[in-house]
């Protein structure tokens, strides 16, 4: 790794998972356009998120990172955004109330478009097509035209991110996230279910707590923290040209920030220590995540900590483990020990989705709700054993009533998957499964005596 960093220094390193853009001039034109556009987030916000994540690293807060596997150019409406936010807020309220610590809310949203693929090509019938890489690159339709990477999509992704972020800011600061409205976040299909009833009970308790505070003389109307939330944005920093185009120098500190989102992460397939993704992200001031799978060694963990957080800033680095339910305990413990003994302040988050994906009998990619819970349980046990803090969860969900993951309170079975299987990439938890998961996480944390 070279000593000097610049927004372009990654170009001297091998960059995995980049699309094969058919026309370099066309790509350059799109990136130049994005470079001229305003940043999507402000460096000061990214610094504030680092501070909040620092509290997570110290064991005094919990991270909830959630959203789509891949955002879609088609599933893009006020209702889609509102429903996603609603589920995140409901989960956050359950976790805040049950754990008794602040919950740092980070969406996989407003920029989570690009997908890494196991193979650059896909055989469809007798056609050999470029793989679908997310709507920021191409379309999933199985034709040569749809699959050819199109740089105009980079510009469209920027605009969709900007308007998604605008609505998120409006909802989170404009009254929708007000704690006085906990009841109104309940959707009908949730009220009529067991986890919906549990949620209603919890909402009732929060109401009572607010009344108690008012009775004690606290003016709950004028206390802005009760009316507003910070929901930060994040995505996998996969397309380095796009990320570079939104990387700006902060006028206050002179540091560089990737202003495409508050937090960026490196995927399991692009975390090579001598690769372009690590090189790019080591130089930006944002909080950074890195996925770690079962192949990651303790040595790797120490090296990635040194590469991405040499100054040991609490909250700068989140390691997101995605081990698989039956491997997590054994695979994670040596990694926790290594970071702990070296004194690295790490936010440890559990991605219970990606290590538990399989193909259903009907041929659809799916995950079972029970495996998702089992991985979180193993994650918490591993932390309990090593006396480290199980800092948070990283999940793929949607507010819509889809049938993509098996199990959960309405026992979605193999034969139901076809009913509403709408994801453009991996299967997501639906609204009910997500809320149920929040209650399960709270129970598991309490049972382990960590909350
Ligand atoms: N602002 C506080 C927080 O973010 C309390 C809060 C207000 C809240 N609205 C919320 C918490 C919605 C969770 C969900 O924690
Ligand atoms: Mn995914």
From TrEMBL:
* Keyword presence, Transferase: yes
Q: Could you tell me which residues belong to the region Disordered?
A: 1-21
Q: Where is the composition biased (Polar residues)?
A: 1-11
Task: Report which residue ranges the record marks as coiled coil.
Answer: none
- Keyword terms: Transferase
Cite a single GO MF annotation: 3-deoxy-7-phosphoheptulonate synthase activity
Q: Where are the bilayer-spanning segments?
A: none
* Record EC number: 2.5.1.54
Return the similarity comment: Belongs to the class-II DAHP synthase family.
Q: What is the protein name stated in its UniProt record? A: 3-deoxy-7-phosphoheptulonate synthase
Q: Please name the source species.
A: freshwater metagenome
